């Protein structure tokens, strides 16, 4: 088997991987290779033809293809090497990467640093356990998006969407625009899983009903899906008897959550966080294995690509410093634990000295709250599950932070002053 | 006869997402309730008087490795023109190669915007 040494190997050429590779190159690393299993660079963004990307990073309202093409062009201008149609089979803790493609055959890369940027996958029907038959016509929202907006197929003319995640809402609108009848978007929770903007512009604009506290309890049809049974659910999410009704459809779109894709992280014995499904990272985006960094949706699922890009740049810079022996050890090792109304925190480990941005997911919507980190409190007007809560910890704030091995991050009602 | 209507508009300016109650009398806004800030009032007024939306879809492309080309409008268009604009573009077929920013349809329906490509697509040799 051919062997080759590289300074940095980046796994995945989506928003996170490209940003990481570009930053590492800009920081002086020459020998970088990006490994991408798809036939083109860009990850998921080429199929996200809607606008709303780049509002923070570029202060411009771009479509997915426009946003990512800026990074693709930059990577190409910087002459960063990439391999397409290339599958990574294994990563070892010693940073040996086994790669296969039709040009190199089987290849081993020995990297000084690795950046994991594999993104996430959609949850499927099998993970939901919906009763009924197994007909054709049941697709995840992302698959429908790829079929419609890259491959030019129309997956159905009468559609039910299960789950109100952003991709599901966006696909409800795409189906409506392409002439399909979208019968309903069915959401088990009492509030939508996607952003308000998408509820308004994807559902209300096209008169698509949003059935909150409802779910699909059964799927009907033999060759092709013919209908679904929809029922109300109680406060615990269980279907309520005698509320069932049948909605005819020929396509069921699933938008029921995304999971960081970490099979490779596991082959490298990287510690994962059960709350995020991704690697535990410190404020450099370094995983539990020295010299292996991670960024983007493989760490935890973001709602804005702008934040993914920033995380990628941070990982790229850290990996470059690591290779150059310039990555300083953390001042102390403070592990952040999710407390009240916090589902997850990234990074999970901070040094407590240098400025750091924390990304939190909350469990339920809450108004006029404060984020508590040890003895620090930061006010926020509103927190909602679909929107990542971003907390910037400045150097000044960190000077006051009590330095313990473990600190709880909680969100609660703001104390009246 | 006086025509009175109350509409609920979800403000999307900030994460609070106020549900504004808007009273419309004889086609004019007479009252906006349950909005917490002036930016919200401005948004809600615009949503009632002249709602605008970003417009994006795909058109067919020939001679490329994929059959559809993503496109957008250069500026937002009136909300009630979205479906008209979709239909206007339904039969458009372009030839590869295309570059991002290339004008695909100039000023459709006289809306004062152009429809432009949002990605580069190379020409591939016939197989």
Topology readout:
The complex is a heterodimer of chains A (417) and B (127).
Chain A lengths: L1 E10 L3 H12 L5 E4 L28 H14 L3 E3 L3 E5 L4 E6 L3 E12 L3 E3 L8 E2 L5 E3 H9 L8 E5 L3 H12 L3 E7 L8 H8 L6 E3 L1 E7 L6 E6 L12 E4 L2 E4 L3 E3 L2 H5 L24 E3 L10 H19 L10 E5 L3 E5 L2 E2 L5 E7 L3 E8 L2 E8 L5 E5 L1 H6 L5 E8 L4
Chain B lengths: L3 E7 L8 E7 L2 E6 L4 H12 L2 E2 L2 E7 L5 E6 L3 E2 L3 H8 L3 E3 L7 E3 L9 E3 L10
Description:
- The complex is a heterodimer of chains A (417) and B (127).
- The mean pLDDT of chain A is 96.
- Chain A starts with a strand and ends with a strand.
- Chain A is α/β, with parallel strands linked by helices.
- In chain A, helix 4 links the parallel strand 10 and strand 11.
- Chain A is globular, with a radius of gyration of 22 Å.
- In chain A, the strands form six sheets. In chain A, strands 1, 2, 3, 4, 5, 6 and 18 form a seven-stranded mixed β-sheet that branches. Chain A has a five-stranded parallel β-sheet with strand order 9-16-10-11-12.
- Chain A folds into three domains: 185 residues, FAD/NAD(P)-binding domain, CATH 3.50.50.60; 133 residues, FAD/NAD(P)-binding domain (3-Layer(bba) Sandwich), CATH 3.50.50; 80 residues, Immunoglobulin-like.
- Chain A has eight helices and 26 strands.
- By secondary structure, chain B is of the alpha+beta class.
- Chain B folds into two domains: 46 residues, N-terminal domain of TfIIb (Single Sheet), CATH 2.20.25; 62 residues, CPE0013-like (CPE0013-like fold).
- Chain B is built from two helices and ten strands, in the order E-E-E-H-E-E-E-E-H-E-E-E.
- In chain B, the strands form three sheets. Chain B has a five-stranded mixed β-sheet, with no helix packed on it. In chain B, strands 1-2-3 form a three-stranded antiparallel β-sheet, with helices on one face. A two-stranded antiparallel sheet of chain B has the order 4-7.
- Chain B is elongated.
- The model of chain B has no long low-confidence stretch (mean pLDDT 93).
């Amino acid at each position: 088997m051919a062997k080759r040494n590289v300074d940095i190997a980046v796994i995945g050429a989506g928003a996170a991987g490209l940003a990481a590779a570009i930053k590492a190159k800009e920081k002086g690393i020459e020998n970088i290779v990006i490994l991408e299993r798809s036939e083109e660079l860009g990850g998921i963004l080429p199929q996200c033809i809607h606008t709303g990307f780049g509002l923070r990073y570029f202060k411009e309202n771009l479509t997915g293809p426009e946003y990512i093409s800026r990074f693709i062009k930059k990577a190409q201008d910087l002459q960063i090497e990439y391999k397409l149609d290339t599958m990574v089979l294994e990563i070892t803790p010693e940073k040996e990467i086994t790669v296969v493609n039709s040009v190199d055959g089987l290849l081993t890369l020995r990297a000084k640093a690795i950046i994991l940027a594999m993104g996430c996958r959609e949850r499927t029907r099998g993970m939901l356990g919906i009763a009924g038959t197994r007909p054709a016509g049941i697709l995840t929202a992302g698959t429908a998006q790829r079929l419609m907006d890259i491959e030019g197929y129309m997956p159905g003319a009468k559609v039910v969407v299960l789950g109100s995640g952003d991709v599901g809402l966006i696909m409800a609108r795409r189906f409506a625009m392409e002439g399909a009848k979208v019968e309903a978007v069915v959401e088990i929770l009492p509030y939508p899983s996607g952003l308000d903007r998408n509820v308004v512009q994807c559902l209300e604009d096209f008169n698509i009903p949003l059935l909150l506290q409802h779910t699909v309890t059964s799927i009907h049809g033999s060759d092709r899906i013919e209908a679904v049974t929809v029922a109300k659910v109680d406060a615990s999410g269980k279907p309520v008897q005698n509320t069932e009704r049948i909605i005819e459809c020929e396509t069921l779109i699933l938008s029921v959550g995304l999971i960081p894709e970490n099979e490779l992280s596991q082959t490298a014995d990287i510690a994962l966080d059960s709350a995020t499904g991704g690697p535990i990272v410190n404020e450099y985006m370094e995983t539990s294995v020295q010299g292996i960094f991670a960024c983007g949706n493989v760490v935890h699922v973001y709602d804005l690509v702008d934040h993914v890009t920033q995380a990628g740049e941070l990982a790229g810079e850290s990996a470059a410093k690591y290779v150059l022996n310039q990555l300083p050890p953390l001042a102390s090792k403070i592990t952040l634990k999710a407390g009240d109304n916090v589902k997850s925190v990234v990074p999970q480990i901070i040094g407590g000295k240098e400025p750091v941005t924390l990304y939190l997911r909350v469990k339920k919507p809450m108004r006029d709250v404060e984020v508590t980190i040890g003895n620090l409190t930061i006010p926020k007007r509103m927190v909602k599950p679909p929107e990542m809560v971003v907390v910037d910890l400045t150097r000044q704030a960190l000077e006051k932070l009590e330095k313990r091995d473990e600190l709880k991050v909680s969100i609660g009602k703001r104390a009246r002053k | 006869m006086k025509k009175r209507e109350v509409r609920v508009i979800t403000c999307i300016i900030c994460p609070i997402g106020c549900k504004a109650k808007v009273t419309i009398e004889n086609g004019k806004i007479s009252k906006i309730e349950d909005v917490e800030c002036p930016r919200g009032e401005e948004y809600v007024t615009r949503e009632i008087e002249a709602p605008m939306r970003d417009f994006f879809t795909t058109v067919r492309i020939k001679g490329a490795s994929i059959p559809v080309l993503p496109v957008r409008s250069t500026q937002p268009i009136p909300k009630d023109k979205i479906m008209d604009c979709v239909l206007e573009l339904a039969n458009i077929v372009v030839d590869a190669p295309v570059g991002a920013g290339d004008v695909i349809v100039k000023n459709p329906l006289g809306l004062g915007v152009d429809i432009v490509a949002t990605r580069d697509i190379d020409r591939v040799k016939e197989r």
